[in-house]
Amino acid sequence: MPVRYAACVVTAAKEAELVGANRPNRSRSRVVGRVLGLGAMGAALVAVLSGCVRTVGEVFGGFGWPEVGISDQSAQMYDLWVGAVITALVVGGLVWGLIFWCIIRYRKRGDELPAQTRFNLPMEVLYTLTPFLVIAVLFYYTVTVQTDADYLSPDPDVTVEVTAFKWNWQFGYQRDGETVASTTGTTEEIPVLVVPTGQTVQFLLHSNDVIHAFWVPELLFKRDVFPGPQLQTRFEITIPEGNQGAYVGRCAELCGIYHSMMNFEMRVVSPQDYAAYVAALEDGLSQADALLSIGQEPYAITTEPFTQRLAQG
Ligand SMILES: [Cu+2]
């Protein structure tokens, strides 16, 4: 070992010993104070950001998230995504800042070995606890949103039975557990799923052949649809009053040659129009005539039957 290097090691060891032995209690309490201060700042930041997630999301285009969506559940998912991205950016900014600060502040200034310190307990507590705090907050919000998105009311306002088959959809409108009216898509007519605003709508999903997946992009949600007598998946949404309209629905599971054309349309109407629509179907009206009877477009406006598209090439 070169003499100069050995001397440095001895000096450093002595310095470390001195630092460890003589560190004043005052400096330790100052570090603890800083840790507590940082924790308080973090808590304040979380509180401020949680109040303005929607605004930040709008400014930055949802950080890649499609849109806010049309259901209460999709709005929660959007807020979770934007909040998680903001948290990641804050943590990233802090880490990058500390890295560059260390690089500049403690850059090499000569050949003398700097004071060697170790076992900085407050610092170790800080970088152990902080990630746990971040994970705990993200975990809390994720579980909350997931629980709400998966929540099933024991007695939903509206229940619709969705049956998927190669390559179309059937929608059965239930009352007291019994299907009272249904519509089925054909190669000439896109099936239209009518649901009301302001009410809990529960979907009972089942397939007649292979695995499909029920997906309305604007709900920011999709759920697999399985075959088999006992296999039924469910999910529930509530759509606020201002989101009436027509939204395309798709199959999101590769189920066969015409999978990409297995579309439907979800028509969101007022509760009164929904009741009138189901009553019209019960009276024997076709899907188109029942839609016309509540002042809606009789045929799908967001997608077309696939036979036309096949014919067009
Ligand atoms: Cu499918």
Q: Would you kindly provide a written description of the structure presented here, covering whatever features stand out?
A:
- The chain is of the alpha+beta class.
- The chain has 2 domains: 3-150, no CATH class; 158-311, Cupredoxins -  blue copper proteins (Immunoglobulin-like, Sandwich).
- Helices cover 46% and strands 21% of the residues.
- It contains 8 helices and 10 strands.
- It has helices spanning 3-22, 25-51, 53-59, 72-105, 121-150, 271-282, 287-293, 306-311, and strands spanning 158-165, 168-175, 178-184, 192-196, 200-207, 212-216, 221-225, 233-238, 245-251, 264-269.
- It has a 5-stranded mixed sheet with strand order 3-2-1-5-8, covered by helices on one side. The protein has a 5-stranded mixed sheet with strand order 4-10-9-6-7.
- β1 and β2 form a beta hairpin.
- The longest helix has 34 residues, at 72-105.
- It is elongated.
- It starts with a helix and ends with a helix.
- Residues 1-24 have low confidence and may be disordered.
- Residues 164, 212, 251, 253, 255, 259, 262 line the site of copper (II) ion (CU).
- The total count of helices amounts to 8
CATH topology of the largest domain: Immunoglobulin-like
Rg on CA atoms, Å:
30 Å
Shape: elongated
Topology as a string of helices (H) and strands (E) = HHHHHEEEEEEEEEEHHH
The chain-level structural class is alpha+beta
Mean pLDDT score, rounded? 84
- In CATH, the homologous superfamily of the largest domain goes by the name Cupredoxins -  blue copper proteins
**Spatial order of the strands forming the largest sheet:** 3-2-1-5-8
CATH architecture of the largest domain: Sandwich
Biggest pleated-sheet summary: 5 strands, mixed
List the uncertain runs. 1-24
What's the end-to-end separation, in Å?
79 Å
